[in-house]
Amino acid sequence: MGEIRIPFAKPSIDEDEIAAVVETLRSGWLTTASNAKALEQELAAYCGAKYVNVLNSCTAAMHLCLAAWDIGPGDEVITTPYTFSATANVIVHTGATPVFADIREWDANIDPEMVERAVTPRTKAIIPVHFAGEPCQMDAIMEIARRHNLKVLEDAAHAVGSLYRGRPIGTIGDATAFSFYANKNMTTGEGGALATDDEALSDRVRMLTLHGMTRDAWNRYDAGGSWRYDIQEFGFKDNLTDLAAALGRGQLRRLDAMNEARTRAAQRYFANLADEEHLVLPRFSEENRQAWHLFVVRVKDSSPVPRDDVIRQLAERGIQTSVHFIPLHYFTAYQRLGHWQKGDFPVAEKVFEGAISLPMYQDLSDTDVDDVCAALREILHPTG
Ligand SMILES: *Cc1c(COP(=O)(O)O)cnc(C)c1O
Of 49, 103, 264, 287, which has the highest C-beta tally within 10 A? Predict the structure, then answer.
């Protein structure tokens, strides 16, 4: 395998962000403090939510949200099998049972009709995942949730900056989780956030974030702060450091510009590949704004070169790709739960069979996109 010429993903960090992290290092205060608080306020303003809790991952945001809703043994939570394992792992961690609803082929997002069919008297919540940054059909999902009295937690790991019918992702479900992992649209190295309009939820998540300490205890190192604190419940340790938050504040300022750069790259892929007979290009709704976290093409069954070979040959040309996602019910740990077998989610399985995530990041140049597309064409049309 050759050297990587065009990576699959690459963070974009500017000099101001480096300076902000260095300044935080020099300040003598490294963990959660003023930068984390400022990032919470700035994110809330950005996505229009009343409250934001910054956390050390999107996984933590989802886990703490379910825990704060007292979801646990005997409960069911509906999500998609076509996601990163974190989405369903956190359901298992609460003691609840994950229930999968298949996706629609159109955009690889959870199918509201399948959600409706999966609802039982034990269902407590739905976790839709905005695949690649394209918003799920939230009106239909919220309608089902309201009718059955279910909570909705959006996994918006791909969708920071996306709009659903003009509304920012972060203001639609009961809570929304964002990821600031290294390859996401904005990064803090590792990090995440939970957005909600529900003050009680935000307060409980804050307590669960830091061992179950009373809120005042967060300020226990302030001048004049008391050494006394109470542990009110058995919490976790999921806070975001000020070092990470300093980076996140700069990233958020540049988020719209970074997402526009991704959109330009997506448009160039579309223009380049529109007539490629062996590929299905990603679909998106004109009424939404897509954050283009991923650009996922599908190699058709009729292609002379199967998906795995296309990936290998791209790698030989120095082009790194990935696959989003391996359906969760294929994994050993999920198999062991004994609920599913191959064939249970035919649409997710079909979409997975052909999927390739092409390089996509803020600094991907026009030449890079053209190189990827030229390589794809060459590979898909072998001569002789
Ligand atoms: C990246 C990702 C996560 C996990 O995010 P972390 O911040 O790494 O915990 C969750 N869901 C989806 C769909 C993701 O792509």
Answer: 103
pLDDT in tens, 166-196: 999 999 999 999 999 999 999 999 999 999 9
pLDDT tier, 229 (very low <50, low <70, confident <90, very high otherwise):
confident
Q: Among residues 252, 275, 296, which one ends one of the domains?
A: 252
- Determine the residue of 8, 59, 79 to mutate for testing ligand 1's pocket, defined as the one with the most ligand atoms within 8 A of the Cβ atom: 59
**Domain end position, chosen among 203, 228, 252:** 252
% of the chain surpassing 70 pLDDT:
96
Q: Separation of 86 CA from ligand 1 center, angstroms?
A: 6
HEC readout, 140-189 = HHHHHHHHHCCEEEEECCCCCCCEECCEECCCCCCEEEEECCCCCCCCCC
Q: Are residues 330 and 217 in the same domain?
A: no
Are the C-beta atoms of residues 227 and 220 closer than 8 Å to each other?
Answer: yes
Q: What is the per-residue pLDDT across 39-96, written as a single tens digit (0 to 9) for each?
A: 999 999 999 999 999 999 999 999 999 999 999 999 999 999 999 999 999 999 999 9
Q: Is residue 4 part of a domain?
A: no
184 is catalytic: yes
User: Domain containing 271 — which CATH number?
Assistant: 3.90.1150.10
Catalytic site residue from 37, 184, 300, 342: 184
Is the same domain home to 248 and 142?
yes
Atom number in ligand 1 closest to CA 158: 15
Q: Give, as one character, the DSSP assignment of residue 6.
A: B
Helix, strand and coil percent figures for the chain, each rounded to 5: 40, 15, 45
Same domain, 154 and 276: no
CATH number at residue 55: 3.40.640.10
Distance in Å, CA 114 to ligand 1 centroid: 23
Q: Establish if 22 belongs to a structural domain.
A: yes
| Bridge-based pairing state of the strands 355-358 and 123-127 | unpaired
Answer yes or no: is the C-beta of 57 below 6 A from any ligand 1 atom: yes
CA distance 225 to 156: 36
Q: Are residues 127 and 215 in the same domain?
A: yes
State if residue 155 touches ligand 1 by the CB under 6 angstroms criterion: yes
- pTM, 2 dp: 0.97
